[in-house]
Design a protein that fits this description.
Chain lengths: ~375, ~325, ~500
Amino acid sequence: MIKVERRLEQPRWLSFAVPVGSVGVAFLVMALVLVITGHDPLHTYKRLFVAAFDGKAAWNDTITLATPILFTGLAAAVAFRMNLFNIGGEGQLYIGAITGSGVAFWLGPHHAKVLTIVLMCVCGAAGAALWALVPAVLKAFGRTNEIITSLMLNYVAGLLLTYMIFDSASPWRDVSTVQTRSFPQSIALQPSQFWPTVRPGGIVIPFGFMLAFGVAAVLWVLFRLTRFGYEMNVIGDSQRAARYSGMRTRRKILAVMAISGAVAGLAGTSQVGDFSHVLDASAQGLQAANYGYTGIVVAALARYNPIAVCLVGGLLGGLQNAGLFLQGADFPSGLVGVMQGIILFATLGGELLIRYRLRLGQRAASAAETAPAAEVA
Amino acid sequence: MNDSLVVQVLAQAVVYGTPILFAALGELLAERSGVLNLGVEGMMLVGATMGFWGMQRAPGPTSLVLLLAVLTAAFAGLVMSAIHAFLVVTLRASQIVSGLALTIFAGGLGLSSYLGNDLGLADVPPKHQFSDIDVFGLKDVAVAGPILFHQSALVYASWAFVVLVAVYLGRTRLGLNVRAVGESPGAADSMGISVAGYRYAHVLAGGALAGLGGACYSLAITPGWTDGDSLVGGAGWIAIALVIFSFWRAELCLVGAYLFGGLSGGLPSALQAHGYKIKPEFLNALPYLMTIVVLVLVSTGLARRRIGAPAALGIAYVREER
Amino acid sequence: MRGITKRFPGVLANDAVDFEAAAGEVHALLGENGAGKSTLSNILTGLYAPDEGEIDLYGAHVRFGSPSDAIDAGIGMVHQHFRLVPPFTVAENIILGEHRDEARRFLINPRQIERRVAALGERYALAVDPGARVWQLSVGEQQRVEILKALYREARILILDEPTAVLTPQEAEALFGTLRTMAAEGRTVIFISHKLHEVKAVADRVTVLRGGRSIATVAAADATARELAALMVGRDVELAARIERAAPPGDAPALEVEGLTVRGDRGEESVRGASFTVRQGEILGFAGVSGNGQRELAEAITGMRPVAGGTVRVHGGKLRLGDPRSAIRARIAHVPEDRLGTGVAPSLTIAENTVLKSYRRPEVSRGPLLRWRAIRARAAELIERYRVAAPGPDTRARDLSGGNLQKLVLGREFSEQPSVLVAASPTRGLDVGAIETVHAYLREAARDGVAVVLISEDLDEIRALADRIVVVYEGRITGEFEPETATVEEIGLAMAGGEGT
């Protein structure tokens, strides 16, 4: 018989080993699924790996895809740490793209690049933060479940995005030529507005990618060293204890959701500034990639630790890259989602091992240690 | 009269509301046992996919084929929910993260896409589909005719399920037990009720109903299969919200489902048919916005009254802990 | 039960325990908190499986795989923490899980069941309205529902776990009467308690458990309270003697509460116009059965709950009610009833919990940043001074035992040099050693001039510690007593709503 017992201490190495082990388990399970459906797992994996990490072009694409995922992963981590389930990263990303690109289009190409980028980031983050404040306010003051409200706003944001380019005469639309008037598209950024890149050894690292690392570092400091982070930890652990100690829970909910939204917004802004240089509202654009939802997977795998998010984000970026690159008649589509799901499942199952110990048979624990604090009679 | 906008909208509301209703009933059962399953969207997609596949493959007369297809869809949903059940009931994982993982796993970029493409379901014309039945020959009766008496078998099945679930929860011994499991699993456990058993059963039932809901799309509303999320388009999430606004009661799920069905499918198509021009994005956004509004109203109201979620919803139950 | 052994991670709850009870007797299981009484009874009712040992029922060997096996075998239990479903009616709770007669999966007939329940209640003087919802009932009434649950299933063996914790002395007497009736019918009643005088009042025989072992079984009439106490604790014990204070409390009022009205969770008035004063260095004991507004009162004074009317003054300064920060700033310390759920953040470490209220102070924070080294040093110091048994400041709060957790909370609250200390049920669930320690700290606080509000369901504790006693009943203060002169009967009367002064 397998008995499940609560662990008295949680060894550090397990927190690291379990997610890693989960990825391993996921690969195994996926291999099984591939075999059952008539594909060769080894061949598939090899192609995946090559597409993701072999050669400069592969790395460039991986970094490209990892950039938004890092942001959305960090955004989700911030919120989920405090048990705020912000599923709205996707929508916040769209809004960040809208407001970030908006200010760039408004400014025009004749300003200093630094100014353009700073303003884009500020406006992108601010717009998305406001979008995130809607579910935040509803939760803090209306006790409304933020999962559903933030999620619904994703759909609304997507529709807004589509509307702005395809169905209206919004300022984002390019109406300069006959062609653009008939086939709707967004204004494009001028080269002087493109975000810079660094190119060590031929690999292209966009500004957004570096910015994401910067944000991760700031968040790490925030969580570990500041009063704000401490309050987050307490509120996330026990609302009653937070109230007992006089912490202002409602304000914190608003602040944390705003930060989460802002970071997700940066993902959208970076998409415009680093990569597409337009507000891509098409069906193959921002709305096709599900960066927001992938970010949640990243955050969960990284156990909401900002540094781990960077690592996991890189990994999943590679996976996403490979999945897109290999899409075609002979490569199973939907593989990416399936793999992500399995990795998550394996991690969730592995969580059990961190909190509990499995015992086989009837062997018992040693006696005469301090008993846990639950009520005893 | 029966061609008027109002009647058309209502009739369509029933049509579009049915998948939401099935999924909501399923989620209702799961939540009553204390388990939150956010993977509804994913389960519906897989159900839609496998239902369509079943319909294409099954031999025989139309009714038999459709029945088998529907069963296939339900079974597919059930299998999906089994993953969630195992993770949260046995392994005591976070119900929220597990549900989200299920959505990603089974959703438009995951398993349903994988299966759909692998099984060659895209752009395939459906061999059979659910058509509207003329009940008691009343389909032309004023007003009620098109709305109530001229719907597909799935709609009538959904009504049967509403009654079944309502009676089950409210009046049977088993229903009492499951409600106890959702409210006070400790009390239920000490009275000899198997908390894990009930939770498994109800989560699986929820999955089956979600799969059934998904099949409504691929077999009746928009017969066919398309890749990605658009087949179900967020209905799974609306179903989850619907459970809350129905105060966890089956009868109210019916009302809510048709309200949202109307907004998401009925109103747009009816308006278009009558030549009204409203920007499609606005119409499409309506159901999502309405969901938020109603949810807020209900949540602020719930707090004041004693009606609320099953008390143990979302919390893993552990017995031998000290 | 023979040789019953049960282990949990880190603790040996039952160690080769032998226990037997006869039909027609009331058998008490006596022991202090943590002695293993609940564990033993949970094994008997099928909730836990013993690691070793066996159980014989009426001479036949039995093995319980689950609670329903035990229930079918005729064992019924009234738990200390009720296992009721609050939104259900009394009748629904009683038939929950019942799988014998009546159509199993099919429709239940509520009226029929309610009639049966009412009849049962009549017979045993345990009247409750079968159609009422449990959350509306008083604690005493809820306990009756628990007993009826067992009787409905025709339990031959009834186990009650600390049943009088929630009763007034008069209600306890009534309960004893019911128990004796049941024993006279030939049932076996097992009465678990840590209260000596009750055990002597109602039991025929007593088995004493200590540290997970059964120590002795004696006839209740033969042993004196002192002997039983000694068996229970393992050493000779001075029973709850009042220690006279070296210096009486000062005259300056530290805490003045006037006309306090507070609403409870369901919108009802939990505290109605309560007014009282606590002087510097005085311990004011609040006696009363739990559920009469004590929790809401404590939460109101400490700012955790909004107030509908009235004022609270600390050293003359009016508090901003409903704001915990205002109370913290006024130096009101709070040792809450629910120490694990409210007093600490369970997953955080001791160090992190040490600064739960003081993290904004300059000693531990520099601007927006926290000075973790200073915090950990403080925590280590606290652990040392209050003798909290823990590996170090990085231990998580939830891994501490009840006693150590309480020491941590108390230590943290004291180290802030409070003017007022609100202690709600501070010794609930603790073993005698920890209880003595907590009492010592409370006395020390009073000696240092802290005004102590002591809320407790344990009348003995209040009589031992308090300088003055007030009684709370249905949100009102129904009596004020001097501990030296007041009798238990008088106080008990006030606890039940009768007049007293």
